[in-house]
Amino acid sequence: DIQMTQSPSFLSASVGDRVTINCKASQNINRYLNWYQQKLGEAPKLLIYNANSLQTGIPSRFSGSGSGTDFTLTISSLQPEDVATYFCLQHNSWPFTFGSGTKLEIK
Amino acid sequence: QVQLKETGPGLVQPTQTLSITCTVSGFSLTSYYMQWVRQTPGKGLEWMGFIRSGGSTEYNSEFKSRLSISRDTSKNQVFLKMNSLKTEDTGVYYCARDSSYIRFAYWGQGTLVTVSS
User: Fold this and answer.
1) Which end of chain B is more exposed for a tag (fewer CB within 10 A), N or C?
2) Residue A92 class from Cβ within 10 Å (0-12 exposed, 13-18 middle, 19+ buried)?
């Protein structure tokens, strides 16, 4: 199975900060990686698909990059409504596997 | 508008069988893959399996021996059944839909399942 190592597990940043979250795959997953935002008690929301494609309706401050084994989610200017847990998902091969999540809070 | 809603029993006793229904609207089950994912305190998010638009299935080997995914296209419903439940199976169970080129594009709200006697 492909292991997804996500870091950091917790992140505290100020409004307006640039924030980056990383996922590292244990083997090559090409660009088959999605990023999700999950607010407390809600379903996951797709932000980025296939490593760098912004889902319709998602603010442009969210972006994704990477390929192969190393991927990054960037929030260019953190907003209060971005408080959530973020996680990655590899869908290159099954069993599809998830990162362990990054809990993002505002300082 | 794509909608997915999971309904489950809430509480299940250990060793019993879990049955969850995902009722969808806004699209046909014969056009898209449907996924099942769970989120447990012990293991976080886990992919459980999917049913293809044509009706065939794939399962995570972690669950394969006790998991079954099926559907009723006339009722727009997808079903998850898992037997031999343990307390570690406590968590939120989600169904999700792929789109034409995006895996796990849409998610239901999830249903909380507690395994306890």
Assistant:
1) N
2) middle
